[in-house]
Amino acid sequence: MPDIALLAVFLPTFFFVSITPGMCMTLAMTLGMSIGVRRTMWMMLGELVGVALVAVAAVMGVASIMLNYPEVFAVLKWVGGLYLAYIGVNMWRSKGKMALVEGQTAPSVGSVELMTQGFMTAIANPKGWAFMVSLLPPFINVEREVAPQLLALLGIIMFTEFTSMMAYATGGKSLRVFLSRGDNIKWMNRIAGSLMIAVGFWLALG
User: Fold this and answer.
1) Out of 38, 60, 111, 205, which could bridge 42 as a Cys pair, Cβ 3.0 to 4.6 Å?
2) How far is CA 154 from CA 33, 112, 160, 182, in A?
3) Do residues 139 and 6 make contact, with C-beta atoms less than 8 angstroms apart?
4) What is the pLDDT of residues 9-66, one digit of tens each?
5) CA–CA distance, 168 with 206 (Å, rounded to integer)
6) Residues 144/152, Cβ–Cβ less than 8 Å
């Protein structure tokens, strides 16, 4: 059984970290503004899978090995970052699948593409790996079975990450509703595109 006392400390600790603005939260807000909360949940699914993978790797010690070889992240960071920035530029110019068009309720971006964005953003972030390596091990009681404790921690991580992303995506949707009242589709695309470009550079240069 997991250590209840440790879980009670981990829950508020991770929630505070999760709700803090970051790449994934900014991406959730951006997509909430451009494609709506329901479609953004596909990105959230990919992000949650990526975060779970990083968390498991951190507990197993794989992350510490990967962090000693930063070149492993270089390709992931730059490919993922440039891809997001490319999407952002197209959105800023009101072009591409992610951009809003007059008379169109929502962009026709695919679910797989959205999941890939979330997954890449989660696993290509060295700071995320470093955070998991430093945060998770202290909450694992070595005198107990690791698997149940890891499952409990993953449950908390998934719940807090999803809750935080939903909050940001809902905020993005609210911004979209506010801007659409004046039919400012161009400005909506530019704001969403600028945020997407920022996430791309954040990922590539982080």
Assistant:
1) 111
2) 28, 23, 10, 43
3) yes
4) 788 878 877 887 778 888 899 888 888 899 899 999 999 999 999 988 887 776 566 6
5) 21
6) no
